[in-house]
Design goal:
Elements lengths: L1 E7 L5 H16 L3 E7 L9 H6 L2 E6 L14 E4 L1 H6 L1 H14 L33 H34 L1 H8 L7 H5 L5 H13 L2 H14 L4 H11 L7 H19 L6 H44 L6 H15 L3 H15 L3 H24 L6 H15 L7 H6 L1 H21 L3 E2 L12 E2 L1 H25 L2
Parallel strand pairs: 1-2, 1-3, 3-4
Antiparallel strand pairs: 5-6
Helix pairs in contact: 1-4, 5-6, 5-8, 5-9, 5-16, 9-10, 9-11, 10-11, 10-12, 11-12, 12-14, 13-14, 13-15, 13-18, 14-15, 15-16, 15-18, 15-19, 18-19
């Protein structure tokens, strides 16, 4: 027989390549011909259409969305996770043989993702990421992981540029360049007020500004393919607009909302020339308008009101025990990693810094460092609890956390919010409370370990960060082990 196959995992490096090799070896040992397309964040070399036309069946070994899946719609299909393809290559080829003999076209499938062979199912509409027969929870997981996989290059590039910028600039120079907002502006670079370090920080911050829009856009892409990208990206841009500051939680809402809106619009069937225009022009136009309107009028207003209420509440707590205030700031910094709650805590820290209270700024910065550091530690302690994409993100999270780039935790939180976010909050609360109890101070608004020269009480600062990192990692591992 002649088979074609697609392997895909979020980063498209180890698991997708190993799955491809396993399938190729098993097919050749069974006397069949096979052509495998490996898809990932770095792109793919498409299978020759002539090979697809000649094939008896297609094999999907995937943990993420399959690009241009419609090419295989006429073929009988088998779909599993990459892990199963790696472990059970010969059994997978047997499933493909059975599918080819049944001649049931793609969408019917043989076997559920990650499970053994099973009866064929009726043809179902396919999106970019959701496999046929997947339940609601599985679909949501794949949609979120699709968004995370496209977001990861921005996390790594932007975060490391910011970290290197602070390192090259030096502690005091980086803090001076950062100013009240925490980062140098492009205007500072153009007027030569900052040099190479400031330039790198500025570029890194621009890349970081795309995290939420890309996450939202490709969550929508995972749901409805290319028509979801424009509404999703716009929803993400609205979520991070200064008047809303919805952060990554706003981006998650925006991406799912955009995908849902376009999914409903796709049910509208029009014929003739107007039908084509609806798909090409009206679908993204109407999808973007409806999604944007809901994000601004329905989602944005409550977020803005929450920010205002939290700010007033924090200002009223200034006479509270320093230990309790530090814990509260830690909880807020880790809750949404750049969203409205995080922004309120950071703004409160800047306000305290301007008035000469350095302890609040130290608590905010240290509590914002432990989420990525704790997750990085967890991926080292128990790597099997995390996907390949998360382990890759964990490697970068060491540097991101050390540089006070809390967003380094977003890939983990986006993929598994119910277990990850509470763990981050507890770890950051521990860090913030220790900082305030030991009266550690920070004269810099940003920079992490690269501004240690501007920290009052360096031993206490490091103790607090280590404690929060260990608590975060322990809770993440415990919840992922005990709560399936």
């Amino acid at each position: 027989m002649k088979f074609v196959a697609v392997t895909a995992c979020p980063p498209g490096i180890a698991h997708s390549a190993m799955a491809a090799e396993s399938i190729e070896v098993a097919a050749k040992n069974a006397g069949h011909e096979i052509e495998v397309e490996v898809q990932g964040a770095g792109g793919a070399v498409p299978i020759d259409p002539a090979k697809i036309a000649e094939a008896d069946a297609v094999i999907f070994a995937v943990d993420a969305g399959v690009r241009n899946r419609e090419r295989f719609a006429h073929l009988p299909a088998v779909e599993v996770r990459t892990r199963e393809a790696i472990d059970r290559g010969p059994a997978l080829i047997e499933q493909a043989e059975a599918a080819a003999q049944s001649r049931v076209p793609a969408g019917a499938g043989v076997g559920a993702p990650g499970g053994p062979a099973g009866p064929t199912r009726p043809v179902a509409p396919m999106t970019a990421a959701a496999p046929p027969g997947a339940g609601p929870g599985e679909k949501l997981r794949i949609w979120l992981m699709t968004g995370v996989s496209y977001m990861l290059p921005f996390v790594i590039a932007g975060g490391i540029l910011i970290a290197l910028g602070f390192l090259i600039g030096g502690a005091r120079e980086a803090a001076d360049a950062a100013g009240a907002e925490g980062f140098p502006s492009i205007g500072d670079v153009l007027t030569s007020r900052v040099e190479l370090g400031g330039l790198m920080v500025s570029i890194g911050q621009i890349a970081f500004g795309m995290l939420v829009p890309i996450l939202a856009g490709f969550i929508a892409f995972g749901m409805v393919d290319r028509p979801g990208i424009a509404p999703g990206v716009v929803a993400g841009l609205i979520a991070v607009h200064p008047d809303i500051n919805g952060g990554f939680l706003g981006g998650l809402i925006g991406g799912l909302l955009a995908g849902g809106v376009v999914m409903l619009l796709q049910r509208v069937r029009l014929t003739g020339a107007f039908g084509k225009m609806w798909l090409i022009i009206a679908l993204p136009l109407v999808g973007t308008l409806v999604t944007g309107a809901i994000m601004i009028l329905v989602v944005g207003r409550p977020i803005a009101e929450v920010q205002s209420a939290l700010t007033d509440w924090l200002e009223g707590l200034q006479g509270t025990s320093a230990f309790v205030l530090g814990a509260l700031l830690g909880l807020m910094m880790a809750f949404d990693m750049g969203g409205p709650v995080n922004k309120v805590a950071y703004a409160f820290g800047l306000s305290a810094l301007a008035s000469g209270n350095y302890s609040v700024m130290a608590a905010v910065m240290a509590a914002g460092m432990t989420p990525p550091l704790g997750l990085a530690l967890a991926t080292v302690v128990r790597p099997k609890l995390f996907t390949e994409a998360e382990r890759d993100a964990g490697s970068a999270a060491w540097l991101l956390g050390a540089s006070f780039i809390t967003e380094g935790a977003i890939p983990f939180a986006a993929a598994d919010p119910l277990r990850v976010i509470p763990s981050l909050m507890v770890g950051s609360a521990v860090t913030g409370s220790i900082i305030m109890a030991l009266d550690v101070g920070s004269r810099a608004p940003h920079g992490g370990i690269w501004v240690l020269g501007l920290i009052d009480g360096i031993p206490g600062f490091l103790i607090a960060i280590i404690a929060g990192t260990v608590v975060t990692a322990a809770l993440v591992v415990t919840l992922k082990t005990g709560w399936k």
